[in-house]
């Protein structure tokens, strides 16, 4: 009896040591592999996200083409390139060119504003007319500084998407090539990756569903609503005779993540600028266009497109989006909210784990909830 017990000790120790070596080797090889593909992780992530969102389109094309996989993939990718990718790249390049001169134009305008002549044209009943020059100078300076900082921020973001042409097109090629393999995959790539983890199946499904739902909501919300509001706002800028309409349209598209007032944060200073310059008709027209058209688009589209897919507070969506932009460039519009959503999800899972003393005991509360 003692010998068998004593004999089991070395065997157990050897098994543990072998498991430790296997785990250590796995971590080392995984770290080396991660280092190899590190520069292309964002391209692969976007390929996975777009493939999941385009899966219904691919499935429809797949059925219409007699279930020919390669033809269906080719037609789906071609449609995405023509309808989304090419126009998006063209807008980014145009915006980057316009952004380079926006900050300089704002500074020159602030120096050229003649507030004293504008003060003389104001009605006598305005209470602050006497101090208008001093107050107006401060207001113009602050608005110019804020607009200049916004312009500089988006210049840096857009430059990340346009600088290094070879790197940009290499990542674009990798993303498209990866989609060739990701589109037909069932289950999707996120579920397949999580299936190789040691996480319980319930947690795997939660994390995969979270990535998909947030990505879908971000694409539908930020992209579609942003494109609509950015286009309409940029069109309003162009009609009002303001320069850099494409650039400011992109800025409004990003600010559209703030429900209701997003584009107004960009358009309101533009209305003030037009009024200070004496273009009152253009200022009033732009203000009316914003209230009746640009803002209304958000009220109609957001509930239908986004719904409650994100399940995140608007403040967290805002912070994670701008944080993603600063950290990852334009891709951060999607990647930032996804990381924030995963952060909330994993902490929610941890909370459930601590309350239930183990994820395996989760089905018990479900039975209690069903009872009257």
UniProtKB/TrEMBL annotation:
- What membrane topology term does the record carry? Multi-pass membrane protein
Where found?
A: Membrane
Keyword tags = Membrane, Transmembrane, Transmembrane helix
- InterPro entries membership: AI-2E-like
Main localisation: membrane
> Member of which family?
Belongs to the autoinducer-2 exporter (AI-2E) (TC 2.A.86) family.
Q: What is this protein called?
A: AI-2E family transporter
What's the source species for this entry? Roseibium polysiphoniae
The top of its lineage is: Bacteria, Pseudomonadati, Pseudomonadota, Alphaproteobacteria, Hyphomicrobiales
